[in-house]
Amino acid sequence: MSTNPRVEGLWTMRVGEREASLKALEEAIVKHGGEPVLIFDRLRSDAAFTQRVAKLLLRDGIESSIHHKLARAVMSYNFWGAEEWSSFFGVNFTKKQLREVKEFPWSLDVLNSTCPLCGNRVRDCHFAFVGLDRI
User: pLDDT tens, 107-126?
Assistant: First the structure.
């Protein structure tokens, strides 16, 4: 582990490397129909958006989360969430606890993809369970 407290970042990169990185991002935004100026403005002004972009970059571009209500609708009977805990076991959740479990860990793309184990759709052959560590 390094004892250097300096954090590497955009401003410690060489100018040419930083410009090349931002240029690549700008080109990708344009390629996908976006307007770079609007995206960069939003990065500066919308902290929640900036946090989502950072998380997406750290996950290698994989959107890993959807709202649990959408996951419930997609997975149908293969879903056990806060509602089931309440109805079967009489568990009462605080608003804070419910906020903590609102995000489902997989994206719709993952749920609709082919399972490498059996060849069915993931949503049809897997079971989603909100475990006790989240409650």
Answer: 888 888 898 889 999 999 99
